[in-house]
C-alpha cells in the first residue's frame, strides 16, 4: 500500500471540520474554486447552476451514508466526451467565479445552495449592505447560519415506498433499446418543430447510459425517468409519418392514443417531480402539455403548460442570471427553454381565448441566439426557427391585446402591427420556402407551422372587422328600419386581410395534403385548418366567388382526415359543419332580402312613373279645359279695358292659389308629420326587439368573437 493510500485511510479530521474540501469536482478544479458538496455527488456551484458535476475520486463511506441518493441528478453527472471538452473550454474562459456586478461576498456566494441565489434576494441585499457601509466583504456568522439553514432545508429525503413503486413500474415499462432509439429519432425529427425541449446531445447520452449500464444512477432518478417517458409518449404520436407505404403491419387502433402507455407512467411521476429543483421538473410537464394538446388542449394540456410555466418562473428562467458561474452554454439552454414554454403557452392561450398567464413586462431574459458550441451537437438544429417563432409570438401577443385608446390610436396601432407582420415575413431566411423544401425534410413542417401562425396573426387582427362587415350587411337588408353606420375604410381593409389570410391558410393545408405530411395528432394543424375554414364561411355570407365551394369542401375534408381516431376533433368537425349551415342560411336570407329590396325599388320606381304620368295627363287636361274656357269667354263678352282686368283679377287664379296652398298644407301638416310620427312610433316599438335580436352581434366582446370563430367550442376537454 503506497503512502497516499495510507494517508487517505487514516484521516484525522472529519470532512465537516476540514478547512479545505476533501475533494473537488472537475469544474471547480479547473477554475480553482472551493468545492462544497451540497448533496451527494453534486457541489453547491454545479447544483445551483444546474451544471454537470463529476468527481474523479470517490467520497468516504461515512459521508455517503448521510443522505439519500434520490435527490442526486445522475443524469447530469455523466457527460459525453464532447461535453467534457466544452466544459474545459468554458472553464478556461472563467477564472473569476463571481460576477463583479453582483458584488457578492466570496464566502457567502460559495455557500448559497441549490440555486437559491437566483430565487431569494437576501444574499445580494446583505452583501450590498456590507459594501454600502464599507464593511469587510466576508460573511458574518449570521449570514453563514442562514446559509446552513438553507442547506438543511434543501437536503433530499429518502423516497417513499409508494414513490419507489411508481419509479420501478415506469422503469419496467421502458421499451426495448431499438424501439427507444426509433421513438427518439421520430421525436427529434417531427416533434421538435420550433421549440427547445432539452439538449438533445445530453438526453441521447443519458439514454445510452441508462440502457448500457444496469447500475446507472439514472435508474433511481425519477426526474430522468419521467422526462424519458414523456419523450417516448410525444414521439409515439408522430410515428404515423414514418410508416412506409409498403408496411405490412397495421395497428388498427384508430381510437387509441399511441403514446398512452408511456404517458400513464409519466403522469404518475409528476406529483413526485414537482418539488424537485431541477430543469427536468420543468421539461417533463412541458412535454406532457404538448403531448395532450390534441386530446385536451383546454383541459389537462392547459394545466400542464401552466405548471411548466410556473416552475420556470420559480426557477427564474425568465430572468437573465447575473452570476458568471453560469457559463454561456447553460445560459443559452435556460433562455431557449424559457422562450419555448412562454411562446407556446401564450400562443395557445390566444387561440383558446384564455387570459394572459404572466405580464410580458416581467420577462427580462434575452431571446434565443445561435451558439455554435451548443448547436453543433444537436441532432436537429432549429435555432433559426426558434428565433423566428419567438419574434412572431411577440407580435401576436400585441395583436391579441385589446387597444383601449381612441379610434385614431387604434387605427395607428393596427397599421403598426400590420407593418410588423410584413417585416417579420421579410426577415425570414431565403431557405424558409416550402416550395423549395423536400417534404420529407424535418424543416418542412416547422416552416409550415411558422407560416400557419403568421396567417393566424392576420386572422386575429381582422376577425372583428370580418364579423362587423357581415353583421352590418345583414342588419341593413334584413332590418330596413335599422340604419347601421357604414364601416370605415380601416374596417373594410382589415376584413379583407382576414379573408385573404383564411384563403392562404387553406392553400398551405392543400400543399401539406399533397406532400402527405398531414397527421391526425396535431392540435396546431387541426385548429389552424378549422379557423381558416370558418373564416371562409363567415366571409362567404356577403360575397362568394367561383372558388368558394371548393375551398369549403377541401377544408372540411381535411378536418375529417385529421379527426380520425380523436373524439374531440370529430366534435370540432361537427361544429364547423354547424357553422357552415348557419352561414349558408344567413347568406340565403341576405340574398332574398336583397332581391326583395330590388323588386320593391322597381315597383316603387314603376309606381312613381305611373303617378307622374297620371299627374301630367291631369294637368294637361286641366290646362286644355282652362284654355277652351277662356276662348269661350272672349267670344261671348265684349272687350274689357286692360285696367278693368287688373282691378278685377280672375277668380280662377285665386282658386289655383288656394288649391296650391291647401295642397302644400296637406303635405306638410298632414301627410309628412303623421307618417313620420307613425314611423317614429313604430321604430321606437321595434328598437327593443331589434337590439335584443342583434345584441350578441353588436357586442365586440372577444369571448363572443372567439366563440364565433370556433375557438371556444373546440375546447378539446373531457373527451379523452
TrEMBL record:
The chain crosses the membrane at residues 286-305, 455-474. Keywords: DNA-binding, Membrane, Metal-binding, Nucleus, Transcription, Transcription regulation, Transmembrane, Transmembrane helix. Residues 24-55 form the Zn(2)-C6 fungal-type domain. GO terms for biological process: DNA-templated transcription. One of its GO terms (molecular function) is DNA-binding transcription factor activity, RNA polymerase II-specific. InterPro entries: Fungal_SecMet_Regulators, XnlR_reg_dom, Zn2-C6_fun-type_DNA-bd_sf, Zn2Cys6_DnaBD. The keyword Transcription regulation applies. Residues 1-12 have a biased composition (Basic residues). Residues 1-21, 63-82 are annotated as: Disordered. This is Zn(2)-C6 fungal-type domain-containing protein.
Amino acid at each position: 500500500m503506497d503512502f497516499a493510500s495510507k494517508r487517505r485511510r487514516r484521516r484525522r479530521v472529519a470532512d465537516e471540520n476540514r478547512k479545505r474540501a476533501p475533494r473537488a469536482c472537475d469544474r471547480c478544479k479547473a477554475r480553482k474554486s472551493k468545492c462544497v458538496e451540497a448533496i451527494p455527488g453534486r457541489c453547491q456551484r454545479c447544483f445551483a447552476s444546474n451544471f454537470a458535476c463529476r468527481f474523479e475520486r470517490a467520497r468516504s463511506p461515512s459521508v455517503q451514508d448521510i443522505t439519500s441518493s434520490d435527490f442526486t441528478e445522475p443524469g447530469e453527472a455523466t457527460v459525453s466526451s464532447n461535453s467534457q471538452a466544452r466544459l474545459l473550454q468554458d472553464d478556461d474562459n472563467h477564472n473569476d467565479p463571481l460576477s463583479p456586478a453582483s458584488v457578492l461576498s466570496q464566502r457567502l456566494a460559495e455557500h448559497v445552495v441549490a440555486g437559491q441565489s437566483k430565487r431569494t434576494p437576501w444574499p445580494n441585499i446583505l452583501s450590498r449592505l456590507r459594501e454600502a457601509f464599507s464593511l469587510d466583504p466576508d460573511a458574518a456568522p449570521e449570514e453563514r447560519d442562514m446559509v446552513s439553514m438553507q442547506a438543511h432545508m434543501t437536503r433530499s429525503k429518502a423516497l417513499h415506498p409508494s414513490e419507489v413503486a411508481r419509479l420501478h413500474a415506469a422503469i419496467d415499462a421502458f421499451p426495448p433499446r431499438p424501439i427507444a432509439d426509433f421513438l427518439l429519432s421520430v421525436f427529434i425529427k417531427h416533434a421538435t418543430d420550433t421549440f427547445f425541449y432539452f439538449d438533445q446531445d445530453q438526453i441521447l447520452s443519458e439514454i445510452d447510459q441508462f440502457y448500457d449500464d444496469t447500475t446507472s444512477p439514472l435508474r433511481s432518478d425519477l426526474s430522468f425517468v419521467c422526462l424519458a417517458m414523456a419523450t417516448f409518449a410525444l414521439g409515439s404520436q408522430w410515428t404515423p409519418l414514418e410508416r412506409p407505404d409498403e408496411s405490412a403491419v397495421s395497428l388498427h387502433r384508430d381510437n387509441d392514443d399511441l403514446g398512452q402507455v408511456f404517458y400513464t407512467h409519466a403522469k404518475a411521476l409528476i406529483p413526485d417531480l414537482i418539488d424537485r429543483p431541477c430543469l427536468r421538473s420543468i421539461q417533463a410537464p412541458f412535454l406532457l402539455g404538448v403531448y395532450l394538446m390534441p386530446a385536451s388542449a383546454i383541459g389537462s394540456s392547459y394545466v400542464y403548460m401552466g405548471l411548466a410555466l410556473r416552475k420556470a418562473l420559480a426557477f427564474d428562467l425568465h430572468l437573465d442570471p447575473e452570476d458568471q458561474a453560469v457559463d454561456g452554454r447553460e445560459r443559452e439552454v435556460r433562455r431557449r427553454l424559457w422562450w419555448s414554454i412562454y411562446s407556446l403557452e401564450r400562443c395557445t392561450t390566444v387561440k383558446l381565448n384564455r387570459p394572459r398567464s404572466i405580464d410580458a413586462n416581467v420577462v427580462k431574459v434575452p431571446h434565443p441566439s445561435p451558439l455554435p458550441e451548443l448547436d453543433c451537437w444537436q441532432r436537429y438544429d432549429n435555432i433559426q426557427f426558434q428565433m423566428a417563432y419567438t419574434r412572431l409570438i411577440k407580435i401576436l401577443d400585441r395583436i391579441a391585446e385589446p387597444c383601449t385608446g381612441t379610434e385614431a390610436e387604434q387605427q395607428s396601432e393596427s397599421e403598426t402591427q400590420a407593418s410588423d407582420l410584413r417585416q417579420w415575413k421579410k426577415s425570414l431566411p431565403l431557405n424558409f420556402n416550402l416550395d423549395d423544401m423536400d417534404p420529407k425534410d424535418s424543416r418542412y413542417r416547422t416552416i409550415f407551422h411558422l407560416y400557419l401562425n403568421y396567417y393566424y396573426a392576420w386572422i386575429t387582427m381582422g376577425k372583428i372587422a370580418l364579423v362587423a362587415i357581415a353583421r352590418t350587411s345583414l342588419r341593413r337588408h334584413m332590418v330596413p328600419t335599422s340604419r347601421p353606420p357604414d364601416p370605415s375604410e380601416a374596417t373594410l381593409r382589415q376584413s379583407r386581410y382576414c379573408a385573404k389570410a383564411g384563403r392562404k391558410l387553406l392553400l398551405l393545408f392543400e400543399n401539406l395534403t399533397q406532400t402527405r405530411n398531414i397527421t391526425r395528432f396535431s392540435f396546431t394543424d387541426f385548429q389552424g385548418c378549422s379557423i381558416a375554414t370558418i373564416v371562409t364561411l363567415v366571409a362567404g355570407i356577403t360575397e362568394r366567388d367561383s372558388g368558394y365551394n371548393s375551398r369549403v369542401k377541401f377544408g372540411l375534408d381535411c378536418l375529417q382526415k385529421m379527426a380520425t381516431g380523436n373524439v374531440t376533433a370529430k366534435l370540432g368537425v361537427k361544429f364547423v359543419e354547424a357553422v357552415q349551415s348557419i352561414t349558408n342560411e344567413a347568406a340565403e336570407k341576405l340574398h332574398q332580402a336583397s332581391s326583395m329590396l330590388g323588386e320593391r325599388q322597381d315597383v316603387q320606381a314603376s309606381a312613381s312613373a305611373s303617378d307622374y304620368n297620371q299627374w301630367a295627363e291631369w294637368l294637361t287636361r286641366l290646362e286644355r279645359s282652362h284654355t277652351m274656357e277662356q276662348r269661350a269667354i272672349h267670344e261671348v263678352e265684349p272687350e274689357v279695358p286692360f285696367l278693368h282686368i287688373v282691378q278685377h283679377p280672375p277668380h280662377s287664379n285665386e282658386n289655383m292659389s288656394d288649391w296650391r296652398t291647401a295642397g302644400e298644407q296637406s303635405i306638410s301638416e298632414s301627410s309628412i308629420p303623421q307618417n313620420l310620427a307613425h314611423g317614429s312610433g313604430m321604430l321606437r316599438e321595434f328598437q327593443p326587439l331589434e337590439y335584443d335580436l342583434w345584441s350578441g352581434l353588436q357586442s365586440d366582446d372577444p369571448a363572443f368573437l372567439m366563440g364565433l370563430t370556433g375557438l371556444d367550442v373546440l375546447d378539446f376537454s373531457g373527451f379523452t
